[in-house]
């Protein structure tokens, strides 16, 4: 494994790891302490984003795709499963049905079998058939580049639409998935639970141009360090800025063992990661993982 550039993770004894073991000053403030001002929140949020950009200069969507149709299909398939499982499934799927026209004309059972490893394959096959037919019939066989059009496609919600817009069309968008929601609440950027309200509140903290990369960085951090059940606080490079420091393991050695993907020396989720990804590619379906 190649260590991520500029990462403080796992470097015991370095200035950075010493700093990473210190909690954010307001983590356990005195009772009645003044709430953080709006300006302080914006500054802290932007500082966390800058730190994450240093830690994950290679942050990217973790679905393999070559065009907007493939990204749309992969994102629909990613519901309730890992990006890894989707990436292991889509090579055969896209070889069989390279275009919306091909997929719209697919035999439903054959399509179901191809996407079976991603789970909920009957419902997902129905969505893929429906959205492919809609692309063929209403959008000239092309994926539309507008949110209001994308959300009319079967199986496509706001989150999927934003992923496609941000990564295939260069239209800034926030991807509020389970990792994003959990981390921004831990960081007290918002207290909202509803993804659309989370999206609106976080959007207001950052310039639009940051939205897509911010989403990738947060999701990278949630998958590698700030896990749902066992966040690796003792190996977290942004601990000094985090009000939730201590929610997870603070012992640096134990925390280091919780790190995942390239930070934990494991393969990533993409079979074909971008050239600057410092980790190893994932193995194809059926190969030893
Ligand atoms: S792992 Fe998560 S909760 Fe722990 S310090 Fe880092 S960002 Fe905060």
Poorly predicted tracts of residues: 1-22, 26-31
Question: What is the assigned CATH homologous superfamily of the largest domain?
Answer: Helix-hairpin-Helix base-excision DNA repair enzymes (C-terminal)
CATH class membership of the largest domain: Mainly Alpha
Overall mean pLDDT: 90
Give the helix proportion (percent range): 40-55%
What is the N-to-C succession of helices and strands? HHHHHHHHHHHHH
Cα distance spanning the termini: 15 Å
Strand content: under 5%
Overall number of strands:
0
**Bound molecule kinds, no repeats:** iron/sulfur cluster
Structural account:
With 289 residues, the protein is an all-alpha fold. The protein has two domains: 15-27 and 36-60 and 174-264, Helix-hairpin-Helix base-excision DNA repair enzymes (C-terminal) (Endonuclease Iii, domain 2, Orthogonal Bundle); 68-168, Endonuclease III, domain 1, CATH 1.10.340.30. It has 13 helices and no strands. Helix 6 crosses helix 7 (121-138). The protein is globular and about 60 Å long. It starts with 14 loop residues before the first helix and ends in a 33-residue tail after the last helix. Iron/sulfur cluster (SF4) binds next to loops.
Features:
single chain, mainly alpha, disordered N terminus, 289 residues
Structure described in brief:
This protein is mainly α and 289 residues long. It has 13 helices and no strands.
SSE layout:
Elements: H1 15-20, H2 38-55, H3 68-77, H4 83-96, H5 100-104, H6 108-115, H7 121-138, H8 147-150, H9 158-168, H10 178-186, H11 195-203, H12 211-224, H13 252-256
Helix pairs in contact: 3-4, 3-9, 6-7, 10-12
The structure holds iron/sulfur cluster.
């Amino acid at each position: 494994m190649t260590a991520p550039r500029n990462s403080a993770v796992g470097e015991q004894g370095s200035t950075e790891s010493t700093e990473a073991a210190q909690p954010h000053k307001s983590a356990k403030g005195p009772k009645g302490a003044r709430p953080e001002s709006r300006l302080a929140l914006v500054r802290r949020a932007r500082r966390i984003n800058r730190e994450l950009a240093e830690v994950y200069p290679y942050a990217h969507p973790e679905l393999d795709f070559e065009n907007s149709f493939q990204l749309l299909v992969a994102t629909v398939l990613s519901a309730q499963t890992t990006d890894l499982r989707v990436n292991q499934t889509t090579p055969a799927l896209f070889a069989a049905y390279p275009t919306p026209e091909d997929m719209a004309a697919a035999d439903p059972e054959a399509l179901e079998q191809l996407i079976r490893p991603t789970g909920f394959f009957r419902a997902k096959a129905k969505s893929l058939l429906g959205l492919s037919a809609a692309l063929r019939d209403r959008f000239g066989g092309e994926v539309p580049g507008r949110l209001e059009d994308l959300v009319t496609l079967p199986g496509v919600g706001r989150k999927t639409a934003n992923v496609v817009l941000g990564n295939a069309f260069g239209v800034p968008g926030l991807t509020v998935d389970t990792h994003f929601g959990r981390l921004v609440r831990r960081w007290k950027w918002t207290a909202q639970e509803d993804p659309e309200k989370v999206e609106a509140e976080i959007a207001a903290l950052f310039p639009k141009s940051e939205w897509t990369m911010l989403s990738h960085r947060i999701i990278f951090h949630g998958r590698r360090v700030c896990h749902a059940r066992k966040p690796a606080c003792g190996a977290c490079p942004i601990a000094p800025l985090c009000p939730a420091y201590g929610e997870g393991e603070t012992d640096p050695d134990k925390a280091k063992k919780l790190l995942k993907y390239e930070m934990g020396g494991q393969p990533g989720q993409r079979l074909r990661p971008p050239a600057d990804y410092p980790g190893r590619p994932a193995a194809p379906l059926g190969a030893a993982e």
